[in-house]
Amino acid sequence: MIFILLGSIFLYLFMMNIIEREANLKDFLLQKYFDASNNLPSWVITSCVTALTLSVLVSQYIPTVPKYIADLQVLGYRLNKFGFCLIAVVLFYMLKSGLGFLFFQSTGDGKKWTVFYFTATKFYFILSFILIILCVTHYYFPLDRNKMFLYYFYFFSFVFIFKVFFYLFHKNNILPEKWYYKFLYICTLQIAPLLLLWKLLFF
Q1: 180 vs 176: CA distance, rounded Å
Q2: pLDDT at residue 78, as a whole number
Q3: Could you read off the pLDDT of 142-170 as tens digits, one per residue?
Q4: How high is the pLDDT of residue 203?
Q5: Contacts by 86-94 with C-beta closer than 8 Å and gap 24+?
Q6: Cα→Cα distances 139→98, 145, 164, Å
Q7: pLDDT for 89-143, tens place per residue?
Q8: Confidence band for 194, pLDDT divided at 50, 70 and 90
Q9: Which end of the chain has fewer beta carbons closer than 10 Å to its terminal beta carbon, N or C?
Q10: pTM for the full model?
Q11: Using H for helix, E for strand and C for coil, what is the string for the chain?
């Protein structure tokens, strides 16, 4: 776990010093879309760190690796809970990102896609730091895991609700203007994939 967290911090240091050209945290979070550069690499790195830290945290709570996954072997290795969570989370984000791109193209707001992932990068950047803190707390402090699972559930429920409002009311107007497109996005690309991921990991 410590190597994953150190790797995540290294990725962020690389992003801030090389990709973002030695930007400080305040400048990075408050920069405007038209003043920013290298948005795609920053989005990819932030997504990777979020997927890694979320997988580390969630892997401690999934009941078991499904038998049809556990029985698969690649070069003599089998997936443990972390590997299973990581693959599930990565596929989840790749699928959601691909569908999000198609959604923006189909609504005639294809140009908003780049503004969308630029804005989402800021949200997931903050979230990933919270996940790093939760991982350190979970692994290095004596906690009641049963109680913590309930707290995590409340926390991620709050994060999800906050993210929906963050997307709806952000000043960059990252979602399509028409209300039914916004409703469609929230239902099909936020709620449905999350329920699918929950079912895959916990049932």
Answers
A1: 9
A2: 79
A3: 777 778 888 888 999 999 999 989 988 88
A4: 65
A5: 86/51, 86/52, 86/55, 86/59, 88/197, 88/200, 88/201, 89/51, 89/54, 89/55, 89/58, 89/197, 90/51, 92/193, 92/196, 92/197, 93/47, 93/50, 93/51
A6: 34, 11, 30
A7: 999 999 889 888 998 888 877 788 889 989 999 999 999 999 999 988 887 887 7
A8: confident
A9: C
A10: 0.88
A11: CHHHHHHHHHHHHHHHHHHCCCCCHHHHHHCCHHHCCCHHHHHHHHHHHHHHHHHHHHCCCCCCCCHHHHCCCECCECCCHHHHHHHHHHHHHHHHHHHHHHHHHHCCCCCHHHHHHHHHHHHHHHHHHHHHHHHHHHHHCCCCHHHHHHHHHHHHHHHHHHHHHHHHHCCCCCCCCCHHHHHHHHHHHHHHHHHHHHHHHHC
Tokens found for residue 35: 């003043």
